[in-house]
Write a structure and sequence with these properties.
The complex is a heterodimer of chains A (408) and B (420).
Chain A: H1 5-18, H2 20-57, E1 63-66, E2 95-109, E3 114-122, H3 124-127, E4 137-140, E5 151-154, H4 155-161, E6 168-174, E7 180-192, H5 198-201, E8 202-206, H6 207-214, E9 221-226, H7 232-242, E10 247-250, H8 251-254, H9 256-294, H10 296-304, H11 309-341, E11 346-347, H12 352-357, E12 363-364, H13 370-397, H14 400-405
Parallel strand pairs in A: 3-8, 5-7
Antiparallel strand pairs in A: 1-9, 1-10, 2-3, 2-6, 2-9, 4-7, 6-7, 11-12
Chain B: H1 2-9, H2 11-16, H3 18-29, H4 33-73, E1 76-80, H5 96-104, E2 109-124, E3 127-136, H6 138-144, E4 151-154, E5 162-166, H7 167-173, E6 180-186, E7 192-203, H8 208-211, E8 214-218, H9 219-225, E9 234-239, E10 257-261, H10 262-265, H11 267-305, H12 307-315, H13 320-356, E11 358-359, H14 366-369, E12 375-376, H15 382-404, H16 412-417
Parallel strand pairs in B: 3-8, 5-7
Antiparallel strand pairs in B: 1-9, 1-10, 2-3, 2-6, 2-9, 4-7, 5-8, 6-7, 11-12
The chains are: A alpha+beta (408), B alpha+beta (420).
């Protein structure tokens, strides 16, 4: 006897309705598990990509070029000069933006207080698409151009220095000749980086204005932002070929903490999925086994009238796969619904400092990724098939005659 | 079926005697061994999960808090109330030595150290950097902070004009042990504060962020240079055991001073712990929900299969309520088996792993930055054991109740006729 698959499907579908309460509960469990996993995955992805973007935006870029000695001795002495009209040799389609900066340690003094920080000379126009400076909230004014000799400080630093926008501060830093420079800067703006450490770590002024103060034409870094992190390795290699005497580093090397957390998140997604699915598997196997054991007589009869063992196995698999598919479909929809519901983000500001230490933003926005949904769906189907293997084997392991003789 | 006979035969007694009902429920549970193991396996997995997760977290949190407070911050500090918001030189603790002596007399306190804090320009030769200058009592620091033990080159503070600096700062300044170092800042009265000394030692913490601006000098020299009297900015307290931090007697500190336990000094540590606990709860909640579904389904199947048996029991005079009670007892047994199994396996695993610890992958500064050790030792979380057990012992009977309640609507005759 040959049975076309369509018939098996029909039979399977009807069999499901024979025990609708039980199958409905199984469906609900799959729904909750898949929906939950999709939401949790999206939250972890949201966290992961926020962290990478923050790492990249905190003046790092995807790839950075430094003088070899700069990381040990971050001063203008470790600067390098770029030819006029130099452009990074990264395909324009992959390039989001790039800039050169002068970043030197400096001491800032107001009338009352003294603080240490990194003074960064920037090209304001370049930074717009490149770093947090493009989007950060500001009070007062932004820097006009690379020649602007005013200074922009963090809001928190302004409070600590006990000064205001419009007042002057004195900056002491080391010039290209190794001697100290002291200069007055007027504060024209304060940036508000939501209370993060950035506010205390950085002050900004125009690049050429800072170069004049330091008596140099050199810069200390080139920062390149790409359209996608996937191009980082390629772009690093390209830049290293182009600038052989300099050190090319991508954000993973510059921000090892963020990179480690990024890798860890990939693993975390898999672990959470496994945990939830194991919890689901107990109920799944349980229900499927019962469904088979109840029907031992039925299977015996089918065998007696000539159905092949393989076809019976197939039928059990078809039934479990149908439930799994229904649950998966519904679960993915549920998960997407939850992601949409939380689209404005989950407010974590109650744990603000812990959140910052963990590299999170204070509002966590879930990020649904198609490949995660595919992964969850595929693995769930595999799991469903594995879970029904034992019940299916039970269904054919009873001899037809014994099965027919059984009481139940 | 012989098993049915057992329950029917003892029926009259069962009504009077709950222990017998419990015994019957126990036997009923093992009529379908496979199903019982699968359902209680789910329960066990949930309990196992929460105990393991929390034991590992608790183990790493204890070390994290210890490392974080031990390096510099201490378990608590006494500061001027204004200092937390405005860490400026003028917000001092007056009469610092008297207050330090008083706090040191508290039986909960293990050690006390006074510190002065100021930001200043530090120069070696032509090079200058900004640094957080710390005036310290060397002998007290040796007890309260791990920094003196981390001196890589030279010695910790011994003479009056000794200075110790962080390795990153030394690198930036191009400084070595024995070099003269000059500290320039603003004194409390607005005049210039100056101090010159010799580098006695270089501290290597492995955390660039800490040591880039780290510089310590003896407290008396600090007070003299910055125009302070018997004043300090923080009185650092170390207690006997973290729990004692709230037991320290802080009466009589006055309105000017604040006693800040580590949770307020390092809110990020406390909140990280809290955040991870919330994460564990979410996962455990989802797993519990799934296990509840599984139990619910088990009881739907179980009630369905035993309709004839229940019909018979009803026909010979057992009250529906008693049958529901019996089913609920089966659910309780199921929970007990699952919880017992889960606790057993997780406890064994935690205790075994606690002997050797689990090495964390070495990712450079990451672990140190998180104040984590390179190997974590789980510490068995009894609170998780209780929480998991209680939750399951509530959830499982609750999940079984709804299907069991169908018995109440069961008419004995139709039930007996049922062919299931």
């Amino acid at each position: 006897m040959k049975m076309p698959l369509i018939l098996l499907l029909q039979l399977g579908w009807r069999n499901l309705w024979r025990q609708r309460r039980r199958n409905f509960m199984l469906l609900a469990a799959i729904l909750v598990a898949v929906g939950g996993v999709v939401l949790i995955n999206s939250l972890i992805r949201g966290f992961q990509y926020d962290m990478m973007e923050d790492a990249v935006e905190n003046l790092t870029g995807h790839v950075k070029v430094l003088a070899p000695g700069y990381r040990d001795d971050p001063s203008i002495v470790q600067g390098f000069e770029l030819a006029d009209g130099w452009q990074p040799s990264v395909p324009t389609a992959e390039l989001e933006g790039w800039t050169r900066r002068v970043r030197v340690p400096a001491v800032v003094m107001s009338e009352r207080e003294t603080r240490g920080l990194n003074l960064v000379g920037i090209d304001p126009a370049d930074e717009r698409d490149l770093s947090f400076l493009g989007t950060v909230a500001m009070s007062g004014e932004r820097l006009r151009d690379a020649d602007d000799s005013h200074i922009v400080l963090g809001r928190e630093l302004l409070t600590q220095l006990d000064t205001k926008v419009g007042r002057r501060v004195v900056v002491i830093t080391q010039g290209a000749d190794g001697l100290n420079r002291e200069a007055g800067f007027r504060v024209i703006g304060a940036f508000d980086a939501e209370g993060t450490a950035l506010e205390k770590a950085f002050a900004f002024t125009g690049r050429t204005a800072l170069q004049r103060l330091l008596d140099t034409d050199a810069v200390t870094e080139i920062s390149v932002r790409l359209t996608d992190d996937a191009h980082s390795a390629e772009a690093s290699a390209e830049l290293a070929r182009e600038l052989p005497s300099l050190q090319v580093m991508d954000w993973r090397q510059l921000e090892p903490l963020a990179a480690a957390m990024f890798e860890y998140s990939d693993a975390a997604i898999f672990v959470w999925f496994l945990i939830v699915m194991i919890a689901l598997a107990f109920g799944l196997v349980n229900t499927l086994i019962t469904a088979v054991m109840e029907r031992v007589r039925e299977f015996g009869m089918l065998r007696a009238i000539g159905m092949r063992p393989g076809q019976i196995v197939l039928q059990v698999l078809v039934e479990s796969t149908l439930v799994m598919l229904l649950g998966l479909g519904g679960g993915v929809v549920l998960g997407m619904g939850l992601v949409a519901y939380f689209a404005d983000g989950i407010d974590l500001s109650a744990w603000a400092q812990g959140v910052e230490m963990a590299g999170l933003r204070s509002v966590l926005v879930p990020r649904l990724m198609a490949e995660d949904v595919v992964l969850v769906t595929t693995l769930s189907l595999v799991l469903g098939l594995l879970g029904s293997a034992y019940p299916a084997w039970r269904a054919v392991s009873v001899k037809p005659l014994d099965a027919l003789r059984r009481g139940t | 079926m012989p098993t049915d006979a057992v329950s029917v035969g003892h029926l009259s007694e069962a009504r009077k005697s709950p222990p017998l009902l419990a015994a019957i429920a126990w036997r009923n549970l093992w009529r379908n061994t496979r199903r019982t193991w699968l359902t209680s396996g789910g329960v066990a997995f949930a309990v196992f999960l929460v105990v393991i997760a929390r034991s590992f977290q608790d183990g790493s949190f204890d070390v994290m808090i210890d490392n974080a407070t031990g390096m510099l911050t201490g378990h608590a500090q006494i500061q001027n109330v204004a200092f937390a918001d405005d860490p400026s030189l003028r917000n001092t603790v007056a009469d610092a030595s008297r207050i330090a002596r008083r706090i040191a007399g508290d039986p909960n306190v293990a050690a006390v150290a006074q510190r002065g804090l100021a930001f200043a320009l530090v120069s070696v030769g032509e090079r200058s950097f900004g640094a957080q200058v710390m005036g310290v009592e060397p002998d007290a620091e040796r007890v309260i902070s791990t920094l003196p033990a981390l001196v890589r080159e030279g010695t910790y503070l011994e003479k009056a004009d000794d200075v110790v600096i962080g390795a990153a700062l030394a690198r930036n300044l191009g400084a070595h042990v024995g070099d003269e170092i000059v500290v320039l800042g603003t004194a409390k009265d607005g005049s210039i504060a100056a101090f010159a000394g010799d580098i006695a030692g270089i501290i290597d913490t492995g955390i660039a962020e800490v040591e880039r601006g780290l510089l310590q000098i003896p407290l008396p020299q600090f007070q003299a240079a910055f125009g302070l009297g018997d004043e300090a900015h923080a009185i650092v307290v170390r207690v006997h055991g973290l729990d004692a931090v709230d037991a320290v007697n802080t009466d009589g500190l006055g309105d000017e001073l604040d006693y800040l336990p580590w949770q307020r000094l390092m809110p990020e540590i406390d909140q990280t712990v809290e955040l991870k606990r919330v994460g564990t709860r979410v996962i455990f909640g989802l797993v519990t929900l799934l296990v509840t579904f599984s139990v619910f389904n088990t009881f739907i199947m179980l009630v369905y299969e035993r309709v004839r048996e229940f019909g018979m029991l009803l026909a010979v005079g057992m009250r529906p309520r008693a049958i529901v009670a019996m089913l609920e007892l089966e659910a309780v047994w199921l929970a007990v088996v699952g919880v017992g199994l889960g606790l057993l396996v997780s406890t064994a695993l935690v205790l075994a792993v606690a002997q050797v610890g689990i090495p964390l992958p070495d990712v450079g500064e990451v672990l140190r930055q998180y104040h984590l050790p390179d190997r974590i030792f789980p510490s068995l979380s009894t609170s998780a054991m209780v929480e998991g057990a209680v939750l399951m012992c509530i959830a499982v009977p609750l999940a079984g109740l709804l299907p069991a309640l169908r018995i109440v609507r069961l008419a004995p005759v139709t039930a007996l006729r049922s062919d299931a």
